[in-house]
Amino acid sequence: MNIGTVIQSGIKEIGAHWFRSALTMFGVICGVASLITMAAFVKGKENLLRESLAQTGGLEKITLESEDDLPDYQKHLEGEAKGVTLKDVYALQSGAPMVHTVTPIINKRYPRVSRQGKGTRVSSLLGTWPSAVELLEHEIDHGRMFNAMEDHLGNNVCVIGTEVRNSLFGEYDEQGQPINPIGEKILINYLPFTIVGMFKEYMSDEDRKKKEEAIARGETIPSRNPFSRFRGGDRNAKRTQYIYYQKNSTVMVPLNTLVSKLDSSYESGSYLDRKLSQVTMKIHDVSLMSSSLQQVRNIVMRTHKGLEDFDFETQEEFADDINLAIHNERVSGMFIAGICLLVGGIGIVNIMLSSISERVREIGIRKSIGATTLDIFTQIITESVVLAMAGGILGLIVSPLLVNTLASFAEDTTPPVITSTAMTVAFAFSVVTGSLAGLFPAIKAAKLDPIQALRYD
Amino acid sequence: MALLELRDIHKTYHLGGETIRALDGVTLDIDPGEFISIIGPSGSGKSTLMHILGCLDSPTSGTLKLDDTMIHDASARQLATIRNKKIGFVFQFFNLLPKLTVRQNVELPMVYSGASNKERRERAMDALRLVNMEDRSKHRPSQLSGGQQQRTAIARALVNDPRIIFADEPTGNLDSNTGEMILQMFEKLQQEGRTVMLVTHDPEIAAVTPRRIEIRDGKIANEIDPKLAGVVPRFEQVFSKEPETAS
Q: How far does the CA of residue A204 sit from the closest CA of chain B (Å)?
């Protein structure tokens, strides 16, 4: 008995009781759709987290931060704790061969940036060294990064993100060309700075594509600002854009300039003792992460005279956190989807049992004309699998609708991403459900005695 | 060379501690091309005999040979293949599948013997032509009269070119004219060289076959065989002694 014929008759059997079949399929549809929807939302969240991981630097990046909370046995030395300083940077540069591009960063949050009376508060003002471009995964699109000489001299130069340009200059000029603000002057905390460079506009691939298409059509669509919706702006801006927004809303100035000219908290004392927000560096070999950390720690312990007023943050920890969070969501989602499929499967068992008890005579007839036990088994299990597969396919069709509907209700969540893996897995699950559900009815049908079955009314 | 050879066939059932001897030592030879009827009241064991002959059931003891193959101890799978290739059934209630068309019903045995789609179609139409049903091939059984349904069932029994056709009360559900026509059809099939066995409780129907076997209490009570006796006794004489009461 060839499989094409079996499947054909399976489809016919389902079609003969289409309403009953549809009700049965509904369980599977729910299971498959919920599995895909769950996976899509988890994937969306995962993408957000991974993007933010990528946007803040790869795994080889480690960050040394000041830690105000000293261990208990050093509590009495709190007054001595200076946190991470430039001394550490120089010590690491000369004494830690396992790390490179050691870069100090002072981060001032929400400084006021203005031009011709038009002002805005940007996400962060970073006083740093030129190597920060590489470490913070920035790319210069126009102009250049300030150089070591400008840092040394404490020149009033800055490199801005596109969001800063958008707020101060606007994004496009009258001709619809993007404005290039290089050479213009802006005020940072009321101090004049010359723009020497501008970063690339960071956005998700999806948004970039949209924007390119729009530009190709000759339209100019303004960049979306996730905060503007509070002022009745773009309500579609979602949280994914937030990390890009933050990155776009950055101003970088030389560390020296920031410390000497913009720093109100700058106390008397050596420049070398100025507490840094963080020292960021890259390690040469990710596989030697723990020894590299140990080397950095040894050196910093020495410059700090044994005071543990610092802490490490590795991207690996971030990555682990992401994996754990995703794993947990996936497990709980799978559990729910699993229960849905189980319910769907029980529905199939039920309908197949009632279907074979209606068809005892048919089975008897088929056996009397030469169907083997295996033929009958195959027939019933095929029907069950076809039923589940049909439900699975419908579930695949329904799931994008469901995902979009849910996504439009939950505006603040990350945009869900339907993956082909999720679809494949969900569909495979529906097939497995169908075959497991068909097993018992198929065995029952195959074991029917043809004589009894023929007498049955 | 006998087509079917039964030697001392016993079949016992156990029903609630009670042993029922449905068949109690039946020995029988059936030659190719014979037209036979098995007659007996209900409960006589004739149905059990037909089931065993038709490979739907296995005997408790005794040997059964079909076409030189010992089949009394064949596996369920082997029996299914034998039913498919060597045996055709015609039932009292036609037993067509209501969801399939006439042609699909006739194709069904070939579905299990693994013929190609094209071959199935051609042979089904050939079989339907034999029973004059080729113009109804696309109808469903529910759209047919009883006689047409039974002709379809005969076409289905014929389609795999079996060695023997069993008909279990083939006219039991038909009016007498239609029943007559169906019986003529079996006669014709037999004249074309096929082996046909009718199972019935009705002596009038049994009268159409030259060889008649009467089963009572699981045993062959009476047999009329033109080969054995020089003179064929009148069938009616044999059976009219005891009026048929069973339905």
A: 55
* Chain B neighbors of A375, CB-CB under 8 A: 80, 112
> pLDDT band for position A196 (50/70/90)?
very high
- Residue A450 touches partner B, C-beta closer than 8 Å: yes
Q: Which residues of chain B have pLDDT under 70?
A: 1, 227-247
Contact B87, B55 (CB under 8 A): yes
Supply the pLDDT for residue A235.
Answer: 40
**Contacts with A429 (C-beta within 8 Å, 6 or more apart), sequence order:** A31, A32, A35, A337, A341, A392
Instruction: Give the residue on A whose Cα is nearest the Cα of B96.
Output: A365
pLDDT one-digit tens code per residue, A113-163: 998 888 888 888 999 999 998 888 888 989 999 999 999 998 999 999 988
The verdict on A370 touching B (C-beta cutoff 8 Å) is yes
Chain A CB contacts of B108 under 8 Å are 366, 369
pLDDT, residue A149, reads 92
Q: For position A229, what pLDDT does the model report?
A: 41
Cβ neighbours of B51 in A, within 8 Å: 451
Helices (H), A359-449: 360-368, 373-409, 420-446
Distance between B51 CA and the closest CA of chain A, angstroms: 8
Instruction: For residue B213, give how far its alpha carbon lies from the nearest alpha carbon of chain A (Å).
Output: 22
| Contacts for A69 with CB less than 8 Å, ≥ 6 apart | none
Q: Is the pLDDT of residue A442 over 90?
A: yes
Distance of CA A354 to the CA centre of its chain: 47
pTM metric for this prediction: 0.67
Calculated CA dihedral for residues A153, A154, A155, A157, nearest 10 degrees: 130
Buried b (16+ CB within 10 A) or exposed e, A382-412: bbbbbbbbbbbbbbbebbbebbeeebeeeee
- A2 to chain B: closest CA residue: B114
| CB of A238 closer than 8 Å to CB of A408 | no
Please tell me the distance from the alpha carbon of residue B32 to that of residue B86, in angstroms, as a whole number: 12
* B81·A370 Cβ contact <8 A: yes
**Are A370 and B114 within 8 A, CB to CB?**
no
Q: What are the tens digits of pLDDT across the range A208-264? A: 777 788 777 776 655 555 454 444 334 444 445 677 888 888 999 999 898 888 876
Taking alpha carbons only, the member of A68, A260, A251, A244 closest to residue A155 is A260
Give the per-residue pLDDT at A234.
43
